[in-house]
Specification:
With 334 residues, this protein is an alpha+beta fold. Helix 4 packs antiparallel against helix 5. It is 20% helix and 31% strand. The protein is built from 8 helices and 17 strands. The strands form 3 sheets. The protein has a 7-stranded mixed beta sheet.
């Protein structure tokens, strides 16, 4: 089953359920967020709850996509209570990409392991603990709150001060926190963990800055377990031509960490177990067009797809000119 959200002509939100090729509105569901909280409170799984509510009118999801009515597949009524976060160096092959970005040009230093490679090796050694205890913690980063969520089909705004705006094709876990502070996984979705790789390459301590960018996920949430072997494709189109087309792998068979370990190290913090909050947590990638020498341009369209995850995720790169490059944000005393 896949869940998504579209806007109706009157501006209200419709929850859409799809199994196979047929998609229908879910009767009485005001949002995926509220549906998830209802399931958590009642102890009923999503499929059972949707069956009890019943299905309404058929929905043409492709048309909704084309006409800009497709929304992010989950949202919070207060965007400040949706957290965008992620992990890095979690996939087999991810260290090679990051290591190439962070290698010191000094020949003597090249003989030493970078911090990225050390972190990756830690994951290989203890990212999938054999017992029920936690394994080694991964790299972790913050991308912002619901204000940074971009709907499928909408533009990813790169700030004018950015040095790059590049895609990262990933799988994200979608979660709500129930009334008792227990994380509840809604499902998994495709994600574009849009980042500034030029800034990150200057110094790996700029990673935090490079991640404070918009992100898009969806268009649909896959309900159920994440397949062990996820195989997708990441593309960039420019002026009608495809300038980048490369596979990406995810799922635990292609990762140095288990999903359970990544979830533990995120939700172990009380801060991230506040009742009613939404979390979109991205699990990392090993495929970047930047690593292949691609320099993105305004108007480029990113497309990320994977079998079993529904419609592809598409967004265009746009420069946000709301602040001039030479301008400075001024703080005014009260």
């Amino acid at each position: 089953m896949h869940l998504s959200q579209i806007s109706r002509p009157d501006g209200s939100v419709a929850v859409v359920s799809r199994e196979g090729t047929e998609a229908y509105e879910v009767r009485g569901a005001e949002s995926v967020y509220q549906l998830a909280l209802d399931c958590a409170a009642s102890g009923v799984d999503m499929a059972t709850r949707i069956a009890s509510l019943g299905l309404g009118p058929a929905v043409d999801l492709e048309d909704a996509y084309e006409t800009g009515r497709l929304l992010a597949p989950i949202h919070h009524p207060d965007p400040a209570h949706l957290h965008l976060t992620g992990t890095g160096l979690t996939h087999l092959g991810s260290a090679a990409t990051r290591d190439a970005m962070h290698q010191n040009a000094n020949a003597q230093e090249e003989e030493k392991l970078t911090d990225s490679m050390k972190m990756f090796r830690m994951g290989l050694e203890d990212g999938k603990p054999a017992n029920e205890g936690p394994g080694v913690q991964p790299e972790w980063f913050y991308k912002g709150n619901g204000a940074n969520v971009v709907a499928p089909g909408a533009s990813l705004l790169s700030p004018v001060f950015a040095e790059d705006g590049g895609e990262e094709p990933e799988i994200a876990g979608i979660y709500v926190i129930d009334a008792n502070g227990v994380p509840r996984r809604v499902g998994f979705a495709l994600a574009n963990e849009f980042s500034d790789h030029v800034m990150e390459r200057r110094n790996y301590l700029y990673l935090a800055h490079s991640k404070l960018r918009p992100a898009s996920f969806g268009p649909e949430i896959r309900i159920g377990a994440l397949p062990a072997d996820v195989r997708g494709t990441s593309r960039i189109r420019r002026g009608g031509a495809t300038i980048f087309d490369k596979p990406f792998l995810s799922g635990e068979a292609n990762m140095s960490h288990s999903i359970a370990n990544l979830e533990h190290h995120h939700f172990k913090y009380d801060l991230f177990r506040q009742p009613g909050d939404v979390h979109v947590h991205m699990f990392g990638t090993a495929t970047l067009s930047f690593a292949d020498g691609v320099r993105t341009e305004p108007g480029d369209e990113f497309e990320i797809e994977a079998e079993g995850f529904g419609l592809p995720l598409r967004n265009r790169l746009t420069i946000d000119g709301s602040m001039v490059r030479t301008g400075r944000v001024s703080v005014h005393a009260l």
